[in-house]
Write a structure and sequence with these properties.
With 346 residues, the chain is an alpha/beta fold. 24% of the residues lie in helices and 25% in strands. Helix 5 packs across helix 6. Bound molecules: zinc ion (2 copies).
């Protein structure tokens, strides 16, 4: 099969590889039917993920059909249509039992697929701990509807959950890229009093306005004043920082009211400064990423019930044979691209 492979910094290529096989009784082999490209894939391409292993197949956002299961797999069967979780976790260690699956202590635990082991920008993928990492897709939910459940939608859902949002809150979301938009859709399920989105890209602003007309939109330059004018207690009650750009960490805590919760989902390229003397007395609570992606079944139920729909994010589609082009487009942010779906059929 052809698999999109991390060769070295700056170079991914479609390479011929053997189909994956079961290596452990808890593994499953999934025939990938639809995959996507994530910003984290670009981070690997740019060499900013040191633990990424050259030679691995990239891709950690995908859905597919179970092709084969190890003898210890009980929650899915051959032929099931499934989402694949970006995180591998055992479900049994100290952290997993508390829902902190991102910190699973299993050797394969955490972000392994498409980083340390072969991922899903290929026709087939081996999924370790398949009972935890695979979720059956309801019959009425399409592959496109389920495509982001295991990664960016899981992230948005987790960010909204840990932000402890109540109906009186003004929630500020920094960044309206794909993960920011998923966060917005999940924050909306909490029905806060208002949601403010801060984004600098005009195309993304238009996208947010089209998708969620009731949301207030501002830009980085005017964000602080805008939030002051549109909140009840001198700042946002909840801030979710998804942008990870220069200055957005500072903006996050500056726009927060005293005693607010600031949830940092963003993955920064550089260290950030926490100037405690400047924020003394503001008594903020900071929560930091990455995602504990263990709510996929609940997310699928919300999609099935029509409460969550991320299909508008799929702005472009490519076959696997043209994945180089798909990466170029996704990386360039041209043509109004939000997310690219890759058809991985052989
Ligand atoms: Zn990702
Ligand atoms: Zn674990």
């Amino acid at each position: 099969m052809k698999a999109y492979t991390y060769i070295e910094k700056g170079r991914f290529e479609l390479r011929e590889k053997p189909r994956p096989v079961l290596e452990d009784p808890r593994d499953a082999i999934v025939r990938v039917t639809l995959a996507s490209i994530c910003t984290s894939d670009l981070h690997i391409l740019h060499g900013s993920v040191p633990r990424a292993v050259p030679g691995i197949t990239v891709g950690h956002e995908m859905v597919g059909i179970v092709e084969e299961t190890g003898e210890a797999v009980g929650s899915v069967r051959v032929g099931d249509r499934v989402t694949v979780n970006v995180e591998t976790f055992c479900g049994e260690c100290f952290f997993c039992r508390r829902g902190y699956v991102n910190n699973c202590t299993d050797p394969d635990g955490g972000w392994a697929l498409g980083c340390r082991i072969d991922g899903g920008q290929a026709p087939y993928v081996r999924v370790p701990h398949a009972d935890r990492g695979l979720c059956r897709i309801p019959a009425t939910v399409s592959d496109t509807q389920a495509l982001f459940v295991g990664d960016i939608l899981a992230t948005g859902f987790w960010a909204a959950r840990i932000s402890e949002i109540s109906p009186e809150d003004t929630v500020l979301i920094l960044g309206a890229g794909p993960t920011g938009i998923c966060t917005l859709l999940c924050v909306r399920l909490k029905h806060p009093r208002r949601i403010i989105v801060c984004e600098k890209d005009p195309a993304r602003i238009r996208f947010v306005r089209g998708l969620c007309p009731e949301v207030l939109v501002t830009t980085p330059g005017e964000c602080r004043d805008f939030v002051l004018r549109h909140s009840d207690h001198g700042g946002a009650d909840r801030v979710v920082e998804v942008a990870g750009a220069d200055g957005t960490f500072r903006m996050a805590w500056e726009c927060a009211r005293p005693n607010a919760i600031v949830t940092v989902v963003a993955l920064y390229d550089a260290p950030q400064v926490l100037p405690l003397p400047e924020m003394y007395g503001k008594n903020l609570t900071f929560k930091t990423g990455g995602v504990d992606g263990c709510d996929c079944a609940e997310i699928l139920r919300l999609i099935e019930a029509g409460e969550l729909d991320t299909t508008p994010l799929v702005t472009h589609r490519f076959p696997l044979s043209r994945i180089d082009e798909a990466y170029r487009l996704f990386g360039s942010r041209q043509e109004g691209v939000i997310k690219v779906a890759v058809d991985t059929a052989e």
